[in-house]
Amino acid sequence: MSDGRYLAHGIGGAKDLPISPELAIAGAVAALTVSFTVLALAWRSPRYDAATSGRPALAFVQEVVDSTAFRVVLRVLGMAVFAYGAYAAVLGQDLLTNPVFGMFYVWWWVGLVPLSLLLGPVWKAISPVRTINLAFAKLSGSDPDHGVFTYPERLGVWPAAIGLYAFVWMELVYQFSTELGPVRLWVATYVAVMLLGGALFGNTFYERADPFEVYSSLIAKLSPWGRRDGQLVVRSPLANLDSVTVRPGLVAVMAVLFGSTAYDSFRESSFWVRHIQSSETSVALLNNLALLGFVVGVGLVFAVGTAATGVGPDTPRWSLPDRFAHSVVPIIVGYMVAHYLTYLVEVGQLTLIQASDPLGTGQDLLGTGDWSVNYWLSYHPTLLANTKVLAVVLGHVVGVVAAHDRAIKLLPKRHQLTGQLPLLLAMVFFTAGGLYLLFAA
């Protein structure tokens, strides 16, 4: 694993964009502006309402998904992968060939995106900490849904935002992120905090404080699967997106997810590499400040862009950022696809190969040890570049649609269009800045 391709993002990544950055950025900004103009002319009433939209899923699909056997299978699968990773982490060698690094940085972090888009809130279904908490509750005769205390509403999803920041810091900034000890400590701390929180506040803690459950559940809002009065329904992802619950800290979660991805591109840019190499300031300090700056910057730009819109007498101005935060979800997905596509496909395959020999002793437990990584995507850079740019543009266009639909619901008629202009400017800034960083990396 000496190839430099595997030394970024904790263990690796690769990007080649052989198309004109100026053309891509200009086209993306034009697409965003045209989309807003079309919406302003043709979309004058709300179209997406999670409370009324969607058609019931097929009866047998509902029966399977709601069956105890299906839920048990998912929990067992989640615990099996967790136990296998723990086995490699505790007994395996402290080398990059240990599959725990790929399981931690690739399968867990990036793999949750496509799984949640296709299947819904996957982490909630397979979470090993939920399963362990359930087992403890069964043994003690308590209810896993209720803890000793009631979860404070004012905390919202702030704990999840902090947990997500701890992960991206570990992945992108911490200089020993590819050593086994720190990864073991991070996971052990995560499990301990989650189990303690579950005991104190019940399953509500996982819904609002587990960084990976909050992350997966937000991405799942762009899946076609939803619930209405407990019934499984199939509906437009935009209607699903309308069902994002507004809670304190939601903008912070979005800022961490979006800002960390932007920083990941920035830290690989020639400008930043030259700067940290020539600076007398500690590299670790510079990287920490840059990551924090990107996260805070994204949050501020979005908060100001939404709070600057026209509001009605019953809508506090600073309540708007959390109410519009759902519109950032498709943008996050777009940048995740653009930035991590080859990382997931190629390093994900490599992890599966390495997982067959978790202890590095020449075993082939999964029968994948003699497989080889397929680099087809990297061998087609033009297709890859177009896919990445399209993902970014499509993410922003869907975000503009979601924001427009919410604005029509919230803003008074005299401000429904002009009131969106500050948010549109923020979106244009995100589009141009994100694509620039993607090309600069």
Automatic annotation (TrEMBL):
<feature type="transmembrane region" description="Helical">
    <location>
        <begin position="72"/>
        <end position="92"/>
    </location>
</feature>
<feature type="transmembrane region" description="Helical">
    <location>
        <begin position="104"/>
        <end position="123"/>
    </location>
</feature>
<keyword id="KW-0812">Transmembrane</keyword>
<keyword id="KW-0472">Membrane</keyword>
<feature type="transmembrane region" description="Helical">
    <location>
        <begin position="155"/>
        <end position="173"/>
    </location>
</feature>
<keyword id="KW-1133">Transmembrane helix</keyword>
<feature type="transmembrane region" description="Helical">
    <location>
        <begin position="185"/>
        <end position="206"/>
    </location>
</feature>
<feature type="transmembrane region" description="Helical">
    <location>
        <begin position="324"/>
        <end position="345"/>
    </location>
</feature>
<feature type="transmembrane region" description="Helical">
    <location>
        <begin position="284"/>
        <end position="304"/>
    </location>
</feature>
<feature type="transmembrane region" description="Helical">
    <location>
        <begin position="421"/>
        <end position="439"/>
    </location>
</feature>
<protein>
    <recommendedName>
        <fullName>Fenitrothion hydrolase</fullName>
    </recommendedName>
</protein>
<feature type="transmembrane region" description="Helical">
    <location>
        <begin position="23"/>
        <end position="43"/>
    </location>
</feature>
